[in-house]
Amino acid sequence: MIYLDNAATTPHKPECVIAAVTAALSSMGNASRGAHEGSLAASRVVFEAREKVARLLGCGRADHVVFTCNATEALNIAIAGTVNAGDHVITTDLEHNSVLRPLYRLEAERGVSLGFVRADECGRPVYDDFERLLRPNTRTVVCTHASNVTGDVVDLRRVSAFAHEHGLLLIVDASQSVGCVPLDMTALGIDVLCFTGHKGLYGPQGTGGICVREGVDVRPWKVGGTGVSSFSHEQPTAYPTRLEAGTLNGHGIAGLSAALDFVAETGIETIAAHEAALASRFVEQVAAVDGVTVYGDALVPDHGCRTATVSINVRDYDSSAVSDALSQTYDIATRPGAHCAPRMHESMGTTDRGTVRFSFGWFNTAGDADEAAVAVREIAS
Amino acid sequence: MIYLDNAATTPHKPECVIAAVTAALSSMGNASRGAHEGSLAASRVVFEAREKVARLLGCGRADHVVFTCNATEALNIAIAGTVNAGDHVITTDLEHNSVLRPLYRLEAERGVSLGFVRADECGRPVYDDFERLLRPNTRTVVCTHASNVTGDVVDLRRVSAFAHEHGLLLIVDASQSVGCVPLDMTALGIDVLCFTGHKGLYGPQGTGGICVREGVDVRPWKVGGTGVSSFSHEQPTAYPTRLEAGTLNGHGIAGLSAALDFVAETGIETIAAHEAALASRFVEQVAAVDGVTVYGDALVPDHGCRTATVSINVRDYDSSAVSDALSQTYDIATRPGAHCAPRMHESMGTTDRGTVRFSFGWFNTAGDADEAAVAVREIAS
Question: Which of A90, A120, B69, B232 lies 20 to 30 A from B181 at CA?
Answer without folding.
Answer: B69
